[in-house]
């Protein structure tokens, strides 16, 4: 029987060489066994929206053939479902397939924030919002691990671009890390307890993530309580000994024993404590509990049907003028575009799944309507005469009641390993859309893309737009279901669609230069920026249309403590079709000493309603819903003040709101001689005492001229102010003032 819990006696029986061998891979995908100690090898493989178990040659870029598995909708699509049940059902199905294929750890999900629409790997990530990303990822991880295999939430941390991803330093202030780039990881770790966390390639504030002790030990383990294995991204380790000391347990892939020898040499030279090795060995051995072997099976047809059902939950109906959609089965329909027959349904790179089958949208549309013509419109490989293809498509569209154009991006435009240079659709597709729209009675555009694309230059010419993202292997059938109203669209944007690339908050700081990328926009990422500076977008975060209508009423907010509340709202389906609505709760406040976005998503729920049905939804707002991260205090703080609770149709449109006052945290700031004069004067205890000293014991406010002088000097550190102004305060008095300010008085 395999040993999976290493007690002290068993650990002491292992040689240092044996222990070191357990901390790196045997090869590209498996760990080393120690058969004499009953420790098995386990297999890790790429995910997260399917199982990429390679049968032959090994690679990390999805180049080699892998065993057929179901390709479910990638995270870019799942994010727009706004539904943790969708994420959970995908996670569970991936777990079943992983178990059937003998996989112990499926690498995923990715929860990195969509800082810029240019990131080439955005198709693997959920959202520009950390709450939405974290809730969906936690549901995925919990469901996957319930099936047996472990998950590997990635890429920790601040991995938001592909340009120079192996070495670029993401230079991010701590408040921004804590409020934007950490929370999704934190939620997954604390709520779903993933088996592993994968460190990223990049450096964070100059230190490689693989050897960043603050990230891997101080934050991940000590603050969040992570007890699993920290695994490297494949090839991310710069210095194996430094990485182990920082908290990285398992290096992947194997290095032919080179890393093992470095660990042994470092311990014997006294440069590495063997206790560090022992701790990582215990965690890696515990991970082998997930080995299980090949067990069970998965029904390919059932999983394909599941992929179709879930894909339909993820597409977003952006525009639908005059009820163009849903289509009538009796209509004459022209389907235009090569994507209709050669679907783009997943991203390129390490998550590229060898799908069990693939549905083409044209076939699915023809299964629902008898009169469907097709024109290629453009070629994905650049072959053929673009003008002839475009003119033939326009002619086909002119003889139909409605034209449906399938447009989007190919893997040449977006993939792991490189970032995009533009958010525009290829020019040949824009020209095609405009030509078809000019010829057709009505025009619908269906998009297939992993990251946001611009709608400018053609949006106003068409009648309807369905953002399909990448919908997995059954996406073609799911799109047909949506176009004909077999399924009512219910997706909402998980990222904003800007008017222009230069409008995006990271535009001037992406992808960086000279080995550094500065996160100069701070917490103002995505909709937080657009709404705060009142910059219009084409479609805001949270936007999405339906074939039915909904009404919101009865908003009430009840305080349940000094720093929390409960929101109740009534949702009614006022249309004539069943549908799903996403209740979006935002919090808006100016409380506290830091600049805050005009509103932030703090709770959401997707609710299914029959025509005429109403449902009352109650959502809790915990402490973190109102908090900001206070860097000087090193903790989350709820400031005393007013907080407006808003129900948004999306991030730009508030349909109901109410304001509450919270007592928040009782904070008395600490001041020292390094604090400014202004901070001293505003201190509730030290301020009045300082005024008494400066006024010769009178305790009165200074005269107007003196007060103006104090105001001018308010930004000076206290120590320098006293010297500059020639004020001689007795040492004992100064010490008393410093102690009143909360300091230990040592500086005095």
Automatic annotation (TrEMBL):
A single BP term in Gene Ontology: carbohydrate metabolic process
InterPro entries: Cellulose_deg_GH3, Fn3-like, GH, Glyco_hydro_3_AS, Glyco_hydro_3_C, Glyco_hydro_3_C_sf, Glyco_hydro_3_N, Glyco_hydro_3_N_sf
Alphabetized GO MF terms: beta-glucosidase activity
Keyword set includes Hydrolase: yes
Domain Fibronectin type III-like residues, every copy: 581-651
Pfam families: Fn3-like, Glyco_hydro_3, Glyco_hydro_3_C
Coiled-coil annotated residue ranges, if any: none
Segments passing through the bilayer: none
Keywords (A to Z) from UniProt: Carbohydrate metabolism, Glycosidase, Hydrolase
rRNA-binding keyword on record: no
Family note: Belongs to the glycosyl hydrolase 3 family.
Role: Catalyzes the hydrolysis of a non-reducing terminal alpha-L-arabinopyranosidic linkage in ginsenoside Rb2 (alpha-L-arabinopyranosyl-(1->6)-alpha-D-glucopyranosyl) to release alpha-D-glucopyranosyl (Rd). It is not able to hydrolyze alpha-L-arabinofuranosyl-(1->6)-alpha-D-glucopyranosyl (Rc).
Record protein name field: Exo-alpha-(1->6)-L-arabinopyranosidase
Organism field: Microbispora catharanthi
């Amino acid at each position: 029987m395999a040993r999976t819990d290493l007690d002290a006696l068993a650990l002491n029986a292992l040689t240092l060489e044996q222990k070191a061998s357990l901390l790196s891979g045997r090869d590209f995908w498996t760990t080393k066994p120690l058969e004499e100690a009953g420790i098995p090898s386990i297999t890790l493989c790429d995910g997260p929206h399917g199982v990429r178990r390679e049968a032959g040659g090994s690679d990390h870029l999805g180049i080699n053939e892998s065993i057929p598995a179901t390709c479910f909708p990638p995270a870019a699509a799942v994010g727009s479902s706004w539904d943790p049940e969708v994420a959970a059902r995908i996670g569970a199905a991936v777990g079943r397939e992983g178990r059937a294929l003998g996989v112990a750890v499926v690498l995923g999900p990715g929860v990195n924030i969509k800082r810029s629409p240019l990131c080439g790997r955005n198709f693997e990530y959920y959202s520009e919002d950390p709450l939405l990303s974290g809730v969906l990822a936690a549901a995925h991880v919990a469901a996957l691990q319930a099936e047996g295999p472990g998950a590997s939430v990635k890429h920790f941390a601040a991995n938001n671009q592909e340009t120079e991803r192996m070495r670029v330093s993401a230079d991010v202030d701590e408040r921004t890390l804590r409020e934007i780039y950490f929370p999704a990881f934190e939620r997954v770790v604390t709520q779903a307890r993933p088996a592993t966390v994968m460190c990223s390639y990049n450096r964070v504030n100059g230190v490689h993530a693989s050897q960043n002790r603050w990230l891997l030990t101080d934050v991940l383990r000590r603050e969040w309580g992570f007890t699993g294995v920290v695994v490297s991204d494949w090839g991310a380790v710069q210095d194996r000994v430094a990485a182990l000391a920082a908290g990285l347990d398992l290096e992947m892939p194997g290095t032919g024993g080179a890393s093992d020898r470095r660990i042994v040499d470092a311990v014997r030279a006294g440069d590495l404590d063997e206790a560090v090795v022992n701790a990582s060995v215990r965690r890696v051995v515990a991970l082998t509990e997930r080995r299980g072997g090949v067990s069970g099976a998965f029904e390919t047809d059932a999983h394909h049907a599941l992929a179709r059902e879930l894909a339909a939950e993820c597409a977003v109906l952006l525009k639908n003028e005059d009820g163009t959609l849903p289509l009538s089965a009796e209509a004459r329909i022209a389907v235009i575009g090569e994507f209709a027959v050669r679907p783009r349904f997943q991203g390129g790179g390490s998550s590229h799944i060898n799908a069990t089958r693939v549905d083409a949208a044209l076939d699915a549309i023809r299964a629902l309507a008898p009169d469907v013509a097709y024109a290629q419109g453009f070629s994905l490989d650049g072959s053929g005469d673009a003008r002839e293809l475009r003119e033939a498509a326009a002619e086909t569209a002119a003889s139909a009641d409605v034209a449906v154009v399938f447009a989007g991006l190919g893997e040449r435009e977006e993939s792991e390993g490189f970032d995009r240079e533009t958010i525009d659709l290829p020019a040949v597709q824009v020209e095609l859309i405009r030509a078809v729209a000019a010829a057709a009675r009505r025009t619908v555009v269906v998009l297939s893309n992993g990251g946001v694309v611009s709608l400018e230059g053609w949006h106003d010419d068409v009648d309807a737009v369905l953002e399909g993202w990448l919908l997995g292997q059954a996406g073609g059938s799911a799109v047909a279901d949506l176009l004909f109203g077999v399924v009512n669209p219910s997706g909402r944007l998980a990222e904003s669609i800007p008017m222009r690339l230069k409008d995006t908050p990271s535009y001037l700081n992406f992808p960086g230069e000279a080995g550094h990328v500065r996160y100069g926009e701070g917490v103002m990422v995505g909709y937080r920026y657009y709404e705060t500076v009142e910059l219009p977008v084409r479609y805001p975060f949270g936007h999405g249309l339906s074939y039915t209508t909904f009404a919101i009423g009865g908003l009430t907010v009840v305080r349940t403590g000094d720093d929390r509340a409960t929101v109740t709202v009534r949702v009614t389906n006022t249309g004539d079709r069943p549908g799903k609505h996403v209740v979006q709760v935002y919090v808006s406040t100016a409380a506290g000493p830091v600049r805050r976005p005009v509103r932030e998503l703090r709770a959401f729920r997707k609710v299914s309603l029959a025509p005429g049905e109403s449902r009352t939804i109650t959502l809790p707002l915990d402490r973190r819903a109102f908090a900001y991260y206070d860097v000087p205090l090193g903790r989350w703080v709820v400031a005393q003040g007013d907080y407006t609770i808003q129900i948004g149709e999306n991030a730009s449109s508030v349909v109901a709101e109410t304001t509450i006052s919270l007592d928040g945290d009782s904070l008395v700031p600490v001041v020292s001689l390094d604090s400014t004069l202004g901070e001293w004067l505003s201190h509730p205890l030290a301020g009045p005492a300082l005024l008494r000293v400066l006024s010769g014991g009178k305790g009165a406010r200074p005269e107007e001229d003196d007060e103006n002088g104090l105001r001018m000097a308010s930004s000076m550190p206290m120590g320098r102010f006293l010297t500059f102004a020639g004020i001689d305060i007795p040492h004992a008095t100064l010490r008393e003032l410093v102690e009143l300010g909360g300091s230990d008085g040592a500086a005095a």
